[in-house]
TrEMBL record:
Family, per entry: Belongs to the oxygen-dependent FAD-linked oxidoreductase family.
UniProt protein name: cytokinin dehydrogenase
InterPro entries with a match to the protein in the record: Cytok_DH_C_sf, Cytokinin_DH_FAD/cytokin-bd, FAD-bd_PCMH, FAD-bd_PCMH-like_sf, FAD-bd_PCMH_sub1, FAD-bd_PCMH_sub2, FAD-linked_Oxase-like_C, FAD-linked_Oxidoreductases_BP
Co-factor requirement: FAD
Organism encoding this protein: Brassica carinata (Ethiopian mustard)
FAD-binding PCMH-type domain: residues covered: 58-239
Record has Chaperone as a keyword: no
Reactions that this protein is recorded to catalyse: N(6)-dimethylallyladenine + A + H2O = 3-methyl-2-butenal + adenine + AH2
Biological process annotations from GO: cytokinin metabolic process
GO molecular function: cytokinin dehydrogenase activity; FAD binding
Pfam families membership: Cytokin-bind, FAD_binding_4
The keyword Cell wall biogenesis/degradation appears for this protein: no
Amino acid sequence: KRNMLMVRSFTILLLNCIAFKLACCFSSSISSLKALPLVGHLEFEDVHPASKDFGNRYQLLPLAVLHPKSVSDIASVIRHIWMMGPHSQLTVAARGRGHSLQGQSQTRHGIVIHMESLEPQKKLQVHSVGGPTPSVDVSGGELWINILHETLKYGLAPKSWTDYLHLTVGGTLSNAGISGQAFRHGPQISNVHQLEVVTGKGEILNCSERQNSDLFHGVLGGLGQFGIITRARIALEPAPTMVKWMRVLYLDFAAFAKDQERLISSDDHKFDYIEGFVIINRTGLLDNWRLSFTPEDPIEASQFKSDGRNLYCLEVAKYFNKLDEDKKDVMNQEVKESLSELSYISSTLFSTEVTYDEFLDRVHVSEIKLRSKGQWEVPHPWLNLLVPRSRVNEFAKGVFGNILTDTSNGPVIVYPVNKSKWDNRSSAVTPEEEEEIFYLVAILTSAVPGSTGEDGVDQIIKRNKRILEFSEAAGLGLKQYLPHYTTRHEWRSHFGPKWDDFVRRKSRYDPLAMLAPGQRIFEKAL
Ligand code: FAD
């Protein structure tokens, strides 16, 4: 008993010593940081908002939040920590909109950089308007929705998007940036000409295919590990004004996937956007759709019954310009012909016409609705997977309607993309199979706060685990998109043949491992 008491007293003493040492460390860090000459400012008091993210499951409280007004503010803070050497506890997390799912944009006791504060006075700069390769220079903290609105003034727009545009350039380029245009243009990381990056040593470097190319490729899809993207030059194309947006239904996954693949493989690009989603255990669906999408044949559509079976919805869009009224008939005819080659259930063609920016900003409409019902800021235990083409039917058979029995708490998006549109030199990871096509499967479930049932966060996480275990046991060779792992072994296996380069770049550009600690890939060197 005496020994136990002694051990207990010793442990308490040790913990107090550590706490005291940390407190000393933090107070000396605070005073040295406060002395830095910055154009923007460091906030030490109101830091709670930076300890949250969209996933709503992880909360790491930072020591401070930097609101940079210039790139040199970011470089000064990082250089300062770099000069403190390996004994400083401080880490740095760039935060875009904080739409990460498992705390990737957070840091415990470190510094969060609020990227949206960066250079608000510096407007987006559009280059080569009217030329063959127009582009736009934007801040790393810029929202894609702002880029859309600004470039549309020149009749231009980026080529590749995400489904939701209230995300930042630095945030999506650190992952990949995938949407229904990726089959044609590749992900957003394939549509960047140049970056300005602040490395983990506080250097400000420009990089591109030709200049500092190792850093350029490393940063794209690099999960924020090698530097902070402060500026990016994004490729543009002439923007359409209108979009014909269509949905058709299938009862058979294989037929749905075959048609999706057929569409993304054709050279004449019959559609500009191709996605799809799975509908499990939902009733009244066709009625709901009629609110915005008109059925081609209302009578036939009203007779359609899914009888509780899974439905697979192919979603395609064709861009056009409002002024070209006579060309519209030709387009409609072409669309009809393209659709006639597909094997969807004929009574289930629904279509609508919207402006280009309405189409691209479509998820924001749902955001507004969910926010008004208090359903936006709930836990989001999402699971995003990249599945090899040759195994996607097996995946669908094992997961849809079996492990996943309901899609009423969030969409399950499924669509193929062409691997040749991804630059293998980037850090982004795709399935290792030598196949031209792989699928994105995004299981975007929202949890009901406080629920212990099937719709509660714990059960959804268990279900996600079952999906991963099933895929692992079947050897499907899938990769996580927006990955989350907790061990070095898992990260190594995630990156596969890219791991050695990833580690090499880390020791070259962020040797103290201070950047993006919320990804949990590297520990800060001590
Ligand atoms: P944050 O979440 O703030 O940051 C993400 C990571 O990037 C963190 O590790 C952070 O430290 C790092 N980071 C942030 N800024 C920088 C920077 N400037 N330089 C270096 N590192 C940086 N993704 C798709 O690909 N396609 C989609 O269709 C899609 N739809 C989505 C819809 C919704 C509703 C949501 C919430 C997310 C969606 N995403 C999609 C995921 C999105 O790409 C990620 O959430 C991504 O993290 C971008 O969010 P963010 O800008 O808020 O970055």
